[in-house]
Amino acid sequence: MLRITELKLPLDHTDEALRPAIVQRLGISDADLLNFTLFKRSYDARKKNSELQFIYTIDLEVADEAPLLQKFADDHNVNPAPDVTYKVVGHAPADLGERPVVVGFGPCGIFAALLLAQMGFKPIVLERGREVRQRTKDTWGLWRKSVLNPESNVQFGEGGAGTFSDGKLYSQIKDPLHHGRKVLHEFVRAGAPDEILYVSKPHIGTFRLTGMVETMRKEIEALGGEVRFEQKVTDVLIDNGQLQGIELASGEQLLSRHVVLALGHSARDTFRMLHARDVFMEAKPFSVGFRIEHPQTVIDQARLGKYAGHPKLGAADYKLVYHAKNGRSVYSFCMCPGGTVVAATSEPERVVTNGMSQYSRNERNANSGIVVGITPEQDYPGGPLAGIELQEQLESKAYLLGGSNYHAPAQLVGDFVAAKASTELGSVEPSYKPGVSLGDLALALPAFAIEAIREALPAFNRQIKGYAMHDAILTGIETRTSSPLRITRGADLQSLNVRGLFPAGEGAGYAGGILSAGVDGIRIAEAVARDILGIPTP
Fold first, then answer.
1. pLDDT tens digits for 324-352?
2. Is the overall model pTM greater than 0.85, yes or no?
3. Domain 101-281+488-533, what architecture?
4. Whole-number Cα distances in Å, 292 to 31, 402, 411, 505
5. CATH class belonging to 2-80
């Protein structure tokens, strides 16, 4: 196999134009090109006055590879294609006695369980929330009727928090063993569009994710695994530093010396239980802020210019960073083109926001988190749980500011920058359900965060025209950007002081987003397999 990089074609090229472009680039006959696949397609919109082109990376087979490699020896854009095939670390023995347990069935737990099942280990999955169809109904109960189910919501249930998001499938993690490709291939097998394998910023959207997680669950079960819903873990059984099993809210004890903790970042009661059992953990940085909404057309025009609205480009996104004078960093987080701001609390009398998009990304507004980085040393000293306590305080205050009915506090961007409370909406209609309560968001976050965001918004306007438009909406608050703690693990991916406990994914502080969580689930499944099979940690 060969790989061509930086193959450029006009934005409006036909599908049929790709093959002759490859033939021309290599200087071969059409018959010599045996087959080809798209590995990556991207475009660069940073230069405002240049013509947009698609930029391709192509893997291909030719009739006689060696002469071509010699011909292009000095061309760094034509090389042997790397092997990106995923390889399992081993298979369960026929006499496997003890089954591994996976706690949590979000992206990390799904992939940990799927890989363990594919290797023959027949995992038992425990998910505190409900299966995805019922969970969706419960989530809509909050959005439409202000009725919260603390065990079945945006955070808890089959599919995890990523199910009610933009479904982004890209990450900046290093992936030398091609775990990320494995994640994408499994998603395609489960019903995702093939394009996620090659577009530069793949996403799926909430609607498609719902069916996909059901399909993956069924495969786990078909391979001998079990997925048990409404099964909340309330204790861990530890003997002399070795995990022996877990205890459920029902009082049932499930014995296993290999337990994957794929909790998600909102399982605060479980974090507290683990801390009480002296499982080693430490506070880590996270971020707090608001959701900002603009008309998607404003973002499209600013980012794509004359190509705004082009059907091959879809809704435009952005990524922004600003370093404020007070030393704080402000940045955009989880940008959702053509999406909505959603109520994401999992606890009574608290308000949290998140962003969500469908695959089509065709809602009227663009939204993104605008958040400020905070650290335990500077902002929440006091131990591993101090970040959780700060989150809870801020979310409870947001609930009161919103009117104590799960409405979210909100403010027009122009009023926020001018330090003036908002009293009526402008041209931008907020998408947050069950509703917003206009006022002064300066009351919702620490003063340093308000100061930094006020300074950042006009600066962002210099990068994206219209970003600080008066009528854009800020909705509060965004606090669950990532886990505020890390359940630290060693080189063997087990807890530092409890052997057999495998902290994993976002909740353990080792992932951020669907792809990286899925990758971490695969890595953890491999670590469990190695430990059971006696294979040394590489």
1. 999 999 999 999 999 999 999 999 999 99
2. yes
3. 3-Layer(bba) Sandwich (3.50)
4. 53, 16, 10, 27
5. alpha beta
